[in-house]
Amino acid sequence: xxxxxxxxxLVGAGVRGRIWxxxxxxxxxxxxxxxxxxxxxxxxxxxxxxxxGAAVHRDLASALADPDIDAEAVVIATPPATHHRLVSRAxxxxxxxxxxxxxxxDLDEVVDLIARADAARRHLxxxxxxxxxxxxxxxxxxxxxxxxxxxxxxHFTYHRQRDGNRDDLNDYVMSMAHPMLLxxxxxxxxxxxxxxxxxxxxxxxxxWRPSWSTYEGDCCVSVLFRFDSGVRANYLGTWxxxxxxxxxxxxxxxxxxTLIQREQxxxxxxxxxxxxxxxRGPNFKGDGEAETPVGEALGPCVxxxxxxxxxxxxxxxxxxGESDPVTTGADHLxxxxxxxxxxxxxxxxxxxxxxxxxxRLRLASAAAxxxxxxxxxxxxx
Length: 381
Fold this sequence. Notes:
Rossmann fold, about 35% helix
């Protein structure tokens, strides 16, 4: 097995790309060999900050042709509209790929990229880094071990005043039709799937845009989920809150207790349910009268950095043949299907049956693959 550091080229040196540059450069089992950005000055700044030895290019084609880069893998941190073209080119050069979410806003393109990765026998992972927050890992473990009994229902709320005019935020989301769904809620939907170890059976959704929003599209999302495990989840997320204080709360109720995450990146508490207490004391119990929440001891975490380290470790382990990846393109498709199920529900005003939506996609994608030039040989154009 090759023990040399994996040589990685980074495409995109914007807000997210600068974090990736730091994380890759600091990884002991990776070398940031090149940075690609249409804005060469921005790419040079990322290089100077994180990896002085990295080559700088304006496009991926020239970086792949550079013998000094000689990459085995690529991390793509560019706007979604560029993903299909860039991932396809990287896979055609037989590189392993980790691409920021969403892999594409077009489901057919996502299915196509998964097929290309399979044909090239290369790993394709997607940037769902919040899976690697210590709080997410703890919730997932407690669900899987059954430490609190069977999970029954959940309530997930995310209230944020995210002014899209800030200089330190990506601006491509400003004109998206569903910015909250595709850029933020997708993370939350993915966490529900990942931590609960279950798939959504059906959902109903509503979205809207408050009058004072800085976004052109809908930035408020409300969803009811029914999971195939029987779990129900109620979700509300917004980028246009009327209070600048970030308000995050994710509550999961089990038969023997409750988990409550009270901040976006930490502050996870556990409540052990005392059934008999409901027969004593006030009907409406407050602090000091109900069970006492106990904080879960979580490891330290720098948000967006340490969780990205966890995702990179999964990617590098897959590239080096040390482990099978979980955060794959195929898995991401399941999360992306929830986003499109929400859009379909919004259009119809009805519950959406997710197995039926998956089947429709499977049939449509099979037809599209049959019609694609080179499909019979698996060749990438």
